[in-house]
Design a protein that fits this description.
This is Nickel-dependent lactate racemase. The chain is an alpha/beta fold. The chain has 2 domains: 2-25 and 274-424, 2-enoyl-CoA Hydratase, Chain A, domain 1, CATH 3.90.226; 31-269, Rossmann fold, CATH 3.40.50. It contains 16 helices and 20 strands. It has helices at 39-48, 56-59, 83-93, 113-120, 122-127, 157-160, 193-199, 202-206, 219-231, 257-270, 294-307, 327-335, 339-347, 358-370, 382-387, 396-407; strands at residues 2-5, 12-15, 21-24, 65-71, 98-104, 129-132, 141-146, 152-156, 164-170, 173-174, 178-179, 233-241, 247-254, 271-272, 278-284, 308-317, 372-376, 391-393, 412-416, 423-424. The two termini are 25 Å apart.
Length: 427
């Protein structure tokens, strides 16, 4: 059997001999009943029937400063099918509205003009007011109080000064927030570095509830919900996309109610139950844009972690053409004595002393403590990855041959074509 795995923009072929013991774990989004509606029609239908909220045109009446929080370059949100309709509805409610598109970079680098054009198109980039959030610029922040965790909520003043705060986004499984979308537009999207660090503290990341697909009792989600309420995030348009990044479902309405409905819908299709634990697990980060760096690729790796036996081999197929993706992430893994010693250090760090990238190398350490990881990535950064404690390979078939040599030809193999789109249960 040959499977084309997502890898950068091109993909990579995996060959599985018939005599191997393998199973394919993927979401059933592709098998959803077809509605016959276009992507635009799905978004418009959701906006015409908002969940727990008036229509956006009604919300915008009398509102002068309107802010739409938009996803950044690391998220494959099909904004061209969302933002034009949100702008249109806002202006139907108030033709004179002063609208700002606030790019939710969270803790990421600034989005480039080229990336903005790719998201929105030339017309919106040229004609609309766009501001890129900078979590490090404390002059841009306003303190809205204290979150349930005890961390302060400081968010971008443009969001605070809005008469109406709304957002776009997409819902997918998330490896420690449960699901993306909705409230994440505020925290971490337009929050200060101080707030993001407090929310992503070691104790919260260590919680057994801070896992893919879990919202109940998840301390990270709890803070995010509080941030959404404190910021008065009134309305969202969130979509669910397939492997080709096309919209298959949309929700609109109240920031919390619509998001919860979208999560419930997605869970029907993203949950997978393996036949058994895997000796070898192959995962990806869904290809471009999510597989641009190693930092982001920890997400897809957690799906492999969830299905793997103790001391299993994880093969991570992710291009990582931008390198490590986080200096703190890189340095921590490169300079530690071992993943175990690094984890011991991390768990001692108080919430208000959380370091940049700490949550990512905490989860990466957790994986490396229990599993060998072979990275299939671009040639340029393989030496760097090896410095960080990974093995590397140029091709997934080479990596699989190496893993089979270690685990034996009877090893059970789990192939996860898109590690960021599934929720592994039942192991």
């Amino acid at each position: 059997m040959d499977i084309k795995l997502p890898f950068s923009r091109e993909g990579m072929m995996l060959h599985l001999d018939d005599n191997l013991d393998y199973e394919i774990l993927e979401s059933s989004i592709e098998s959803m009943p077809k509605t016959g509606k276009t992507e635009d029609e799905m978004v418009l239908e959701a906006m015409e029937h908002p969940i727990g909220s008036p229509r956006l045109s009604e919300l915008s009446r009398g509102k002068q400063k309107v802010v739409i929080i938009c996803s950044d370059h690391t998220r494959p949100v099909p904004s061209k099918h969302i933002i034009p309709f949100m702008l249109k509805e806002i202006r139907e409610g108030n033709p004179q509205a002063d609208i700002t598109l606030l790019i939710a970079t969270g803790f990421h680098r600034a989005t480039t003009r080229e990336e903005l054009v790719g998201k929105f198109g030339e017309e919106i980039v040229d004609q609309e007011k766009i501001v890129i959030h900078d979590s490090q610029n404390m002059d841009d922040m306003v303190n809205l109080g204290v979150l349930p965790s005890g961390a302060p909520l400081l968010i971008n003043k443009i969001a605070v000064q809005a008469d109406l705060l709304v957002s776009e986004g997409f819902i997918e499984t998330h490896f420690f927030a449960g699901f993306s979308g909705g409230r994440k537009s505020v925290l971490p999207g337009v929050s200060s570095a101080v707030t993001v660090l407090g929310n992503h503290c070691s104790a919260f990341i260590d919680s057994p509830y801070s896992r893919t697909g879990i919202l109940e009792n998840n301390p990270i989600h709890r803070d995010m919900v509080a941030a959404s309420k404190m910021a008065n995030q009134k309305y969202i348009v969130n979509v669910i996309i397939d492997a080709d990044k096309n919209i298959v479902h949309a929700v609109a309405g109240d920031a919390l109610e619509a998001h919860a409905a979208g999560c419930r819908f997605l869970q029907q299709y993203c949950q997978v139950i393996p036949k058994k634990s895997a000796d070898i697990a192959i995962s990806t980060n869904g290809g471009y844009p999510l597989d641009q760096n190693m930092y982001q690729s920890v997400k897809g790796m957690t799906a492999a972690e969830a299905v793997s036996k103790e001391n299993g081999v994880i093969i991570m197929v992710s291009n990582c053409g931008d390198g490590h993706g986080g200096e703190g992430f890189y340095q921590a893994l490169k300079n530690c004595e071992s993943p175990t010693s690094l984890m011991e250090e991390i768990l001692k760090v108080p919430q208000d002393e959380t370091k940049p990238d700490q949550w990512e190398y905490q989860i990466q350490s957790r994986i490396l403590i229990h599993h060998k990881v072979i990275y299939v990535m671009c040639e340029q950064y393989r030496a760097m990855a090896e410095e960080m404690g990974f093995e590397t390979a140029s091709d997934v078939n080479e990596a699989l041959a190496r893993a089979l040599k270690e685990k034996g030809k009877d090893a059970h193999i789990a192939v996860i074509p898109d590690g960021v789109s599934v929720m592994v249960k039942g192991i």
